[in-house]
Each structure stands twice: as C-alpha cells, then as structure tokens.
Amino acid sequence: MAAQRKIDVVMESVRRLIRMGATPNLLNLLQKQHPADLAQVFSELPERDRHAAFNTLVERNGKLAMETLSEIGPDKGAELLALRSAEDIARLVQEIPSDDAAVLIDKLPEELSAVVLDLIRPKPGGGVSELLEYEQQTAGRLMNPNVFALAEELTAGEAITALQTSRDVEMVFYLYVVDDRRHLVGVVSLRRLLLVPPDTPLKRIMTTEVYSARVDTDQEEVARQVASYNLLAIPVVDAENKLAGIITVDDVIDVIKDEATEDVLRLAGVSAEDSVRMAPADSLKRRVPWLLVNLVTAFLAAYVVSKFQNTIKIVPILAAYMPIVAGMGGNAATQTLAVIVRGIALGELTWTNARQALIKEGLVGLGNGVANGLVAGLIAWGFSRGDWALGLILMLAMIVNMFVAATAGTLIPLGLRALKVDPAIASSIFITTFTDVLGFLTFLGLGTAFIRFLHPG
Q1: Cβ-count burial of 52 within 10 angstroms (0-12 exposed, 13-18 middle, 19+ buried)?
Q2: Distance of CA 257 to the CA centre of its chain
Q3: In which residue ranges of the chain is CATH 1.10.357.20 found?
Q4: Which of 96, 155, 199, 220 is the most exposed place for a label (fewest CB within 10 A)?
C-alpha cells in the first residue's frame, strides 16, 4: 500500500510539473526514481503525459529512460521509441542488455526495426540481430549473449584477475568454463573460486554436471529448470553444446509472470494481449470470437432441453432447477481445469501419472457431487413441500454431472495437449459444453423416468 501511495504521489507530481512546464523539476523528480517505479508511473499516465515525461528523461538520462522501457513492457516501450529516429533508437538500445534491446526492437514497426538493426549490426557486442534470429519465447530469444566465460586452462588466481578487469558482466555468482572451441565443460561458483589457493586449476574445482538450456528450448521449460534447481542463472548452449548466452533469474521471473497471466486469461477465453488500458474496439475484436463459439455450444444445450418439452410442461418446476445442475457442474469443472492446466504448465502432470490424476479428480468430483447433491436435494424437497422424487432427481443429476465435470476437466486438457493445442485456451469451451449438455440431459432424463412420482405443476 505504501509503495502504491508513493507511485500515486509521483504520478500526480509528474502531471502537475508537465502542465506547469517545469522541465528541470520534472527531470529531477524522474531521476530520483527506480526504473521499476518509473515504469509503473509511465504505464498509468495518460498517453500525452507519458510521451512528454519520457522525452524529458531520454534527453538527459538515456540509460535510465531505457531501463524504464525494459520494465514497462515491450509493447508500451516500443510505442514510446517508435516516435524517435532510427539513429536515435540505435544509440539508445546500446544502453540496455542485448536481450532487453531485442524484445523492444522486435515490437517496433517492421520498416523501422529493419533500419535500426542495420545501424547496430556492425557495432561490436551488439548481439541484438543474432537474438532476433531465434524463435519467440525460446531460450535463444531470452538470453543475454554477453556471458562471462573462462578457459579451462586458467587457474583460480587468473580467473579472479579476468573477472576484475571485465566490464558489463551480468552474472558473477556462476562462472562458466569452456574449452578452446567454447564448448561448455563446467561451472564454478564465485564462493568456491575465492576459497581455493590462487594456483588451483579450474579443472579441479569446476562442476562438470551443468544444468543448461538449448537455444531452442521453450522459455517455460527454462523457467521450470531454474525454479526446480534453485538457480540464479542458467547457461544457454547451441546444438554443439557451445556456450551462447545466459538467462538470469530476473528474466525467468518475468517469464513466469507473463505465462501465468497468459494462462489465466486464456482460461477465460481472453487474449493475452488484452488489458484494462486497451481500446474498446481492440478488446472487442479479441473477445468476440470465443464468445461466438460459446454461443454455438449454448445452442447445443438448448437443443437438448427442447427434446424434453413435454416433461417440462407436465412438471414446470424442473425448469427452475436446471441451472443449478449445469452451474454447479461448470464450477466443479473450473476447479479441476485450473488444477490440471497448472500441473501441465509446471510439468507436474505427464502421461505417466495421468491415470493417477484422473482417478483422484474423479473421486473428488464424485465426493463433491454427493455432498452438494445431498444438500440441494434436501432443499428442493423442502421447497416442494415433500416432493421426495424431485429431491432425489436433483441429487442424482448433480452427482453424475459433477463426476463428469471432474473427468472431462482432466481428460480434455490432456487430450488437447496431445493434439498440440494449448489446453488453457480451448479447454473451457469444451468443458462448458459437456457440463451443460450432460447436466440437462441427466436431470431432464431422470425427470422423464420418474415423472409419475413427481408432483405435477
């Protein structure tokens, strides 16, 4: 709360200083802020004020301005950069690591991006163009190619000297050891390096079992490795096991946050690019397709209901309880789906333990159905003044539907994953169809079977 209050105060001060035209005071205020705080301030400012604040900062403190763009996100960062000349952008992106620069340049308009890449390609150490050759959301695109590596022939003392004289080293907790052809052969922790005698060869103190990622490894898999093995950084190698770069834990945290946000939005049928600040027309364009698909499946449920018109005419009270069966089935399916999709995303759920997960979720669904069905049945019996058949039908329908919901919530995402379809974005539609259709079919089917025991309307 205190941090948010600080952001609010800074944002109001920025807006006031812009209106007053007090550029020196504005610059002084901006330069006192951390890049992450500035990124939040810029994100919440109106577009006009955001551009004014960024232009003021970039003219006097290009490094802080670019660090802020790295924090604000590629879309808004590229939007602020796109109004500047290609030469200016090429100069500014040199202020941030190559991996952050590559993300920003990739989001620029295509023609501007090509010109910027031509301008920075000849410069030493500018590995941005090389990073952009890798597929999006892979380790190659995420890594920083400026990684500190040591030859395996060096001693501990020589390694420390090399480290002291190097510049722009992003991660020094781990020192990677390579052979004469730059193959990754080991890793030495900084603590280990400082505790041994200076004449100790690196070969004797390095660990040869190195956790690494290939340049084509999906960024989610990289995040899983870093989280599983409690790493502060992970080296990235090419197909020949040559050291290509490094991914640090701060980048992994961003990946985890982005992937989690994307999965949550996709479970609701919303595009990962959608946000509260997006223009209404753009949000509408992204949401309508999935809603139309849901509309088609809703008509399927309506078709099932239409086949029981005679039953509903005789016992109209059945129509009042239909949404309970379908709604509770949908809620149960959502719970199962959230657990299963999370398990798939974290690598906890595989084909090896899928059967165990199916049995577990089936038992949970059955237990939920019995507990909720019993309560619902008693309430229906009480409201209907002793119509035991109505209470029994409602209870049995909920047991069946909640069991089906749990089973479908497990099998559908696993099946979609086998078909190479993202289970987070497509599962909810199929499961909603299952719970609605099966719920109505079971409830009204039981109502038809027990109609002679029900109190007519």
Answers
A1: buried
A2: 5
A3: 280-453
A4: 199
- The total of other beta-carbon atoms located within 10 Å of residue 165's CB is 7
Is the entire prediction scored with pTM above 0.70? no
Cα 214 to Cα 192: distance, rounded to the nearest angstrom:
26
Contact 317, 385 (CB under 8 A): no
Instruction: Give, in degrees to the nearest 5, the angle at Cα 172 between 170 and 178.
Output: 95
Identity of residue 254: D
pLDDT confidence bin for 271, thresholds 50/70/90: low
CA angle 227/230/236 to nearest 5° reads: 75
Kindly calculate the radius of gyration of the chain based on its CA atoms and give it in whole angstroms. Answer: 30
Q: What's the CATH architecture for 280-453?
A: Orthogonal Bundle (1.10)
Structure-token pair, residue 225: 């490795």
Q: Which fold has domain 149-254?
A: CBS-domain (3.10.580)
Q: Is 20 helix (H, G, I), strand (E, B) or coil?
A: helix
Q: Which tens digit of pLDDT belongs to each residue from 310-348?
A: 999 999 999 999 999 998 998 898 889 888 887 877 677
Q: Where exactly does CATH 1.25.60.10 map onto the chain?
A: 2-134
Residue 6 scores a pLDDT above 70: yes
Are β-strands 243-248 and 174-178 bridged in parallel, bridged antiparallel, or unpaired? unpaired
**Residue (of 449, 447, 410) closest to 427 by Cα position:** 410
Tell me the C-alpha distance between 290 and 302, whole Å: 18
CATH architecture for residues 2-134? Alpha Horseshoe (1.25)
Q: What gap in Å lies between CA 188 and CA 133, rounded to an integer?
A: 30
Count of CA atoms in the C-beta half-sphere (13 A) of 327: 7
Distance CA 328, CA 395 (A): 12
**Whether 405 contacts 435, CB under 8 Å:** yes
Structure confidence by residue, pLDDT tens digits, 364-408: 999 999 999 999 999 999 988 888 999 999 999 999 999 999 998
> Which contacts (CB < 8 Å, 24+ apart) does range 384-391 have?
384/317, 384/455, 387/454, 387/455, 388/453, 389/450, 389/453, 389/454, 390/317, 390/318, 390/321, 390/454, 390/455
Residue showing tokens 């109502």: 447
402 touches 328 (CB < 8 A) = yes
> Which residues, listed in sequence order, are joined to residue 201 by a DSSP beta bridge?
155
> In the beta sheet, which residues pair with residue 174?
189
Mean pLDDT of the chain: 85
Which bin fits 411, alpha (ψ -120 to 50), beta or left (φ > 0)?
Answer: alpha
